[in-house]
Write a structure and sequence with these properties.
By secondary structure, this protein is α/β, with parallel strands linked by helices. The chain is built from 6 helices and 12 strands. It comes from Romboutsia weinsteinii.
């Protein structure tokens, strides 16, 4: 039975509301489309007046299977403490305090950007070809996943599962040393820093409740593999079909103090 990529984008009066995607088998196609439409219509940012659904058949021999990043949740009391903890991980990834502070300033300044920023951590320049569009991480999902978009279980709701699938794919790309992200959903305050080295570090607050800002930054180091170009990195993130194995490892929740010792 074939696999299909489903992509949903919704807007209201030409303002982006939400976007999501799945990779599912033919049997789950109708149900998955219905769930994505339901999500678009019932989003916290408003009821969409335009919903676009794209369905594309995928050749199974073109799919790469990868492992999910292990998950650690850091319970922080507010967004200020969350940002401080995010900077701790950035520092551990070899990014100095001055640069990590600028990364936080950069992500806080993102407004209505549909894709991600790619930041060269050596030159500290934005290197995505289109600064308005950014880089769109697409064609990824958990193997055989069926998301419950209304789930209250933060381990398995759509925000988390989609973010983990995306972070796992992006982190598997050569020359991407990490990613920092938080959602533009005003009701969802959590965010994360993901990397090959430390896995998916989730912070319960990276922004205040009600804040409609959101964005992501891919941290790029061309020195890791000089034979893998920026264009190849972008092509992998945007076009390679990836299914993440349904084998998520949840580590014990930790405190900000314990984060220092990971």
């Amino acid at each position: 039975m074939g696999l299909y990529s489903i992509k949903m984008r919704s807007s209201k009066t030409n303002k982006h509301i939400s976007g999501a995607e799945n990779i599912v088998n033919e049997e789950s196609l109708e149900e998955s489309v219905g769930l994505l439409v339901k999500r678009a219509i019932n989003h916290a940012k408003g009821k969409a007046d335009s919903v676009n659904i794209k369905i594309e058949k995928i050749e199974e021999d073109k799919i790469q299977f990868i492992n999910p990043l292990p998950v650690t949740t850091v319970k922080v009391k507010d967004d200020k403490e969350g940002i401080e903890c995010a900077e701790v991980i950035l520092n551990k990834l070899g990014i100095n305090k001055s640069k990590s502070s600028k990364i936080i300033e950069l992500i806080k300044g993102v407004r209505n950007m549909r894709g991600a920023i790619i930041l060269d951590i050596n030159s500290f320049e934005r290197i995505e070809p289109d600064k308005e569009r950014g880089i769109r991480a697409t064609y990824m999902d958990f193997e055989g996943s069926k998301l419950d978009y209304m789930s209250k279980d933060t381990r398995y709701n759509a925000h988390f599962i989609e973010a983990l699938a995306l972070a796992s794919k992006v982190s598997s790309s050569p020359n991407i040393i990490g990613e920092i992200c938080y959602s533009d959903d005003p009701n969802y305050t959590a965010g994360y820093v993901a990397s090959k080295k430390y896995g998916y570090i989730r912070f319960t607050h990276l922004k205040k409740l009600g804040d409609e800002r959101g964005g992501r930054i891919f941290l790029y180091d061309p020195c890791i593999d000089r034979n893998f170009s920026l264009l190849e990195t972008i092509d992998y993130i945007e076009n390679t079909k990836v299914l993440v194995k349904n084998d998520i490892k949840f580590n014990e929740n930790i405190t900000p103090t314990e984060l220092q010792n990971i």
